[in-house]
Specification:
It is a single chain. The chain has helices spanning about 40-45, 110-130, 150-160, 170-180, 195-205, 220-225, 250-255, 265-270, 275-290, 305-315, and strands at about 1-5, 15, 25-35, 60-70, 80-85, 95-100, 105, 140-145, 165-170, 185-190, 210-215, 230-240, 260-265, 295-300, 320-325. By secondary structure, the chain is an alpha/beta fold. It folds into 2 domains: about 1-120 and about 275-325, Alpha-Beta Complex (Quinone Oxidoreductase, Chain A, domain 1); about 135-265, NAD(P)-binding Rossmann-like Domain (Rossmann fold, 3-Layer(aba) Sandwich). The radius of gyration is 20 Å and the shape is globular. Bound molecules: NADP nicotinamide-adenine-dinucleotide phosphate (NAP).
């Protein structure tokens, strides 16, 4: 089979032929139709992600396709079933072997490209905002990096929860996209001060002294400014560090304002909260099947062009989600 294999950490993956996986007990092998591209793919390739992979390996955390074979002791899945899954890595390939508990049946109404773009972005934003931060209707949510993969879904999910959304992004085009995704107000953090603009917007709207919840996949100075424009009792959701800068948190500000900083890691949360995870992801999938939500996919790449997708994330030229169509070029 074909796979985009990383042979050494720090090197770009290359398309090569490798042996097809054989499922062990409890595993299924998926014939991959599509794989979602995530910023975390760029990190795991450098050995900088919280999950480590030893070369040679193919990146790729979220796939959709058809069951090709099942190992011993697997019940509930059979060859030919349409599924989506969250492998530890290995999605930039024709086939991937995944433990069956990480695989979900796919409704016929959901196509593979949408399914591959759905799980991580929507799962992170929906569970982070609803279950971890407890966003309530009428609250004000500040979403950073709002034109990116998780950011765009955070805008949509916060609106679904009945919140008002102030979104930030770099540049007027990305701000326009954030408004298109549902943001009530946008701040171009390439040219505007986040703290000043948030307080200005809140004052004009008659909202307390700042926002109630911050959703931050960017980190660095964006996080530092956020601490200075939140309302008393606010919750700051740490999602990621796309800026490359992990913020240090001054505890005195948390104390004085009675605010909470909450870490949220989607993959670990699913493992730690299996019952809530089933409820949350099942509910989201029903929304996807009913077309209440639909992933914003800005570009679809062939497997052989996967490095161009990774470069687009690194260079900040991507918007919404990027997806690899693993069926083309076979
Ligand atoms: N906690 C979790 O479970 C979880 C789940 C998924 C993702 N994440 C994390 O969330 C972050 C975003 O992931 P994603 O897949 O949504 O990525 P993405 O699509 O590339 O979006 C990242 C956004 O961050 C902004 N950004 C600011 N500085 C950047 C820089 N130096 N390089 C690249 N982007 C920069 C970009 O928007 P502007 O150009 O508008 O600034 C971009 O749209 C990553 O750190 C990822 O690891 C965490």
């Amino acid at each position: 089979m074909r796979a985009m294999i990383c042979s050494a950490l720090g090197e770009s993956p290359r398309l090569v032929d490798v042996a097809e996986p054989v499922p062990l007990a409890g595993d299924v092998v998926i014939d991959i139709a599509a794989c979602g591209v995530n910023f975390a793919d760029t990190l795991i390739l450098q050995g900088k992600y919280q999950k480590r992979a030893d070369p040679p390996f193919a990146p790729g955390f979220e796939v959709a396709g058809v069951i090709a074979s099942v190992g011993a002791d697997v019940t509930g899945f059979a060859p030919g079933d349409r599924v989506m899954a969250l492998p530890d890595f290995g999605g930039y390939a024709d086939l991937v072997c995944v433990p069956a508990h990480l695989v979900t049946h796919l409704p016929d109404s959901v196509d593979f490209i949408d399914a591959a773009a759905f799980q991580i972005a929507y799962g992170t934003s929906w569970i982070g905002l609803k279950y971890r931060a407890g966003v309530q209707s009428g609250e004000v949510v500040l979403v950073h990096g709002a034109a990116g993969g998780v950011g765009a879904t955070a805008v949509e999910c916060a609106k679904m929860l009945g919140a008002s959304v102030i979104a930030t992004a770099g540049g007027p085009e990305k701000c326009a996209l954030a408004r298109h995704y549902g943001a009530d107000f946008t701040i171009d953090y390439a040219s505007e001060n986040i703290r000043d603009r948030v307080l200005e917007i809140c004052a004009a709207q008659g909202w307390k002294r700042g926002v109630d919840v911050v959703y931050d996949p960017v980190g660095g100075d964006v996080f530092a400014q956020s601490l200075r424009c939140v309302a008393p009792g606010a919750r700051l959701l740490v999602i990621g560090f796309a800026s490359g800068d992990v913020p240090q948190i001054p505890a005195n500000i948390l104390l004085v304002k009675n605010i909470s900083v909450l870490g949220f890691y989607f993959g670990a949360w699913l493992d730690q909260n299996p019952d809530q995870a089933q409820e949350a992801m099942g509910g989201l999938l029903a929304h996807l099947a009913a077309k209440d939500i639909s992933p914003v996919i800005s570009k679809i790449y062939d497997l052989a062009d996967a490095n161009a997708a990774l470069d687009a994330l690194r260079m900040r030229t991507a918007t919404g989600k990027l997806v690899i169509d693993c069926r083309t070029g076979r």
